[in-house]
Task: inverse folding
């Protein structure tokens, strides 16, 4: 069965370190998204991609970057982790950017000390 | 920019009762899609129901149905015959027809089903 996976599921890091969160999907979807979830804010869009070599900034992109070198993967990098980036991160993918359901990964809980 | 508002941070009902979760949104677009997602304690985001704005008929999925009022920009979720497994966070979400900017979520409603 097709799926979307994230790794690691939990990570603790220190302020200033570079961190990369992995996202891998086997749906063969062109569209992939990264969200963060914080108490009182719901989920907010960080970055998204509509295909290989395409990346776009979302609502809360400062301090994050993504790259898309193949269809299956969209890694999220925190260049210099900050305590404000402690959050739960979700990756999602969809066949169409708008009309189709976005399928979500299980999430990564990141703690920045 | 679109906004999604869920005015009920938490709701609690008895098992087998019917409950309605509220959602309003603000947009100037005419073509868009609306979703309800469920997030149980496992943290997994699960699609409950999807509505296309150009369809007047309200979407239904088994015990779940929506009341979509386009003019009022309202998109409420009704859960009939509620079950203990329905206990979860419920998020209303909006996406424009062009798909730009991904999903815009409300802050969620924590639904508790009491035995």
Result:
């Amino acid at each position: 069965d097709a799926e979307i996976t994230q790794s690691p599921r939990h990570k603790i890091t220190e302020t200033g370190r570079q961190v990369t969160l992995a996202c891998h999907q086997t749906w063969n979807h062109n569209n992939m998204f990264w969200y963060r979830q914080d108490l009182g804010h719901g989920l907010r869009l960080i970055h998204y991609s509509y295909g290989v070599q395409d990346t776009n900034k979302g609502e809360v992109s400062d301090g994050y970057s993504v790259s898309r070198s193949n269809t299956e993967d969209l890694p999220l990098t925190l260049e210099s982790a900050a305590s404000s980036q402690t959050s739960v991160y979700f990756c999602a993918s969809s066949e169409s950017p708008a009309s189709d359901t976005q399928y979500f990964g299980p999430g990564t809980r990141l703690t920045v000390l | 920019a679109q906004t999604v508002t869920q005015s009920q941070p938490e709701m609690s009902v008895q098992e087998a009762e019917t409950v309605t979760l509220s959602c309003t949104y603000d947009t100037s677009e005419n073509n868009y899609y609306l979703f309800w997602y469920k997030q149980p304690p496992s943290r997994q985001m699960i699609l409950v129901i999807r509505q296309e704005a150009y369809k007047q008929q309200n979407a239904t999925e088994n015990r779940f149905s929506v009341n979509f009022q386009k003019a009022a920009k309202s998109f409420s979720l009704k859960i009939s015959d509620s079950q203990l497994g329905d206990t979860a966070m419920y998020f209303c979400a909006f996406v424009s027809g062009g798909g730009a900017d991904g999903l815009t979520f409300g802050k969620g409603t924590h639904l508790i089903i009491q035995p």
